[in-house]
Specification:
Elements: E1 4-14, H1 19-35, E2 42-48, E3 53-61, H2 64-69, H3 71-75, H4 86-102, E4 106-115, E5 120-133, E6 136-148, H5 153-158, H6 171-182, E7 184-185, E8 195-196, H7 199-211, H8 218-222
Parallel strand pairs: 7-8
Antiparallel strand pairs: 1-3, 1-4, 2-3, 4-5, 5-6
């Protein structure tokens, strides 16, 4: 099985979409890509018919862009395990795609794609449209922007994926452990009683704290530092 990624994003319905077309698109899309698809799903939720937008959640197959580039195969080519035959697929999709194509209706998406297992952290945007090739209508995806971020606390919070409360340990947990178990303190805590870390040591500790956001214990971070004394 490929690595899974966690995805959240927004769809913007561009063009002269009316409520009935958006509703039909969401129903058909969710039936194929949420209810029907299983592991690598996409679910459209919280539709705002006044502003023509909707939130969505998804699980990416290695990356969510893989899902997007396979939209047509997973839906119209019957690769998706929805309990329908090819004729039923066509009855669902083809009239909808025809209406989208004739009225130049498109969907712009913005999303974040995150996987702790391989430190993947991406923000991207793209466009879903309908293309006509040899009189065959199909879903098409075009990537517009793609930003790769280092996987750390700062960027997870910047992208709105986490808050301080989501991390198992805090900087105060680190400071408490250093002082109680090793008699060490950060320079900003100088109390004249405990040994202060030097600048290099502080930088090393801050690096591992930042880039191991989901460390389950302080020891998991400290074990990377050769200067931590044996207890």
């Amino acid at each position: 099985m490929a690595n899974e990624t966690d995805v959240t994003g927004t769809m913007y319905f561009k063009g002269n979409w009316d409520k009935s077309i958006i509703k039909r698109f969401v129903e058909v899309f969710n039936r194929h890509f949420f209810t029907g698809y299983g592991t690598y799903f996409t679910e459209i939720v919280d539709v705002d018919y006044d502003d023509n937008l909707a939130s969505f959640n998804a699980t990416g197959r290695t990356s969510y862009e893989v899902n997007l580039r396979n939209l047509n195969n997973w839906a119209l080519n019957n690769d998706c395990p929805v309990d329908m035959n090819k004729e039923q697929f066509n009855d669902e999709w083809k009239p909808l795609l025809s209406e989208m194509y004739q009225n130049n209706l498109k969907i712009e998406i913005e999303y974040t794609d995150e996987a702790q297992i391989n430190n993947r952290l991406v923000a991207a945007s793209g466009q879903i449209s309908v293309r006509n090739k040899n009189n065959q209508l199909s879903l098409s995806y075009k990537n517009l922007r793609h930003w790769q971020y280092p996987y750390n606390r700062t960027n997870l919070q910047y992208l709105g994926l986490c808050s301080d409360d989501d991390y198992p340990i805090s900087k105060n947990d680190v400071k408490k452990k250093l002082k109680e178990s090793y008699g060490l303190i950060f320079r900003e805590e100088n109390d004249g009683k405990h040994k202060m870390l030097n600048a290099v040591q502080e930088n090393q500790l801050n690096y591992y704290f930042e880039f191991m956001p989901f460390a389950k214990s302080v020891e998991e971070i400290l074990c990377n530092l050769s200067w931590i004394p044996s207890t």
